[in-house]
Specification:
By secondary structure, the protein is an alpha+beta fold. The chain contains six helices and five strands.
């Protein structure tokens, strides 16, 4: 009898998969680095089983990231009461019209210091290859720009007041 042992097996070339994984990791690293460096920018995805928000939400609101991941409605509770109705109506109208393109809004959000920060939000709908739909967007802290615009407006009012109180000169 033959007592030699044999091994049987097969090889699978996984080079393509490994290359794709490396490229995905590189893209994720690039994305994360960009988001981390732009501290006034927050990226989010919501709906359709998606629940993602970048860590910069902590700088924006003062609240831990986990709070937003655990409670999807938390962010809405931070919106200034005077902004809720207009914002809600604009988003509802956008959805009713097919949620095409990007919807942009400006509104205020209360941080943990009790101050309101101005947000410029750009939101759009994504439909992936599985036909799943969700919303994605970016929020930008525009508080400093709003403060500058307010100072310009105040200066224009003061200048207008001074000019209107000058005696009329007739030549």
């Amino acid at each position: 009898t033959d007592t030699r042992k044999y091994w049987a097996g097969f090889f699978v070339n996984v080079t393509e998969r490994k290359n794709a994984e490396a490229k995905l990791k590189e893209t994720e690293t690039r994305f994360t680095t960009i988001i981390d460096k732009l501290s006034n920018l927050t990226v989010y995805e919501t709906g359709g089983g998606k629940n993602y928000i970048s860590e910069n939400i902590e700088k924006l609101t003062g609240l831990p990231l986990d709070n937003f991941l655990k409670d999807e409605k938390l962010f809405n509770t931070l919106i200034h009461p005077d902004d809720i109705e207009l914002l809600s109506n604009r988003i509802k109208s956008w959805h009713k019209s097919g949620a095409k393109g990007v919807i942009s809004n400006e509104f205020r959000v209360k941080n943990t210091r009790g101050k309101y920060v101005w947000i410029e939000d750009h939101m759009f709908k994504i439909i992936n290859e599985k036909n799943e739909q969700y919303l994605s967007g970016i929020m930008i802290d525009i508080t400093e720009q709003k403060k500058v615009l307010e100072k310009i407006h105040d200066t224009e009012i003061r200048l207008s007041t001074v000019l209107s109180n000058l005696p009329k000169i007739v030549i």
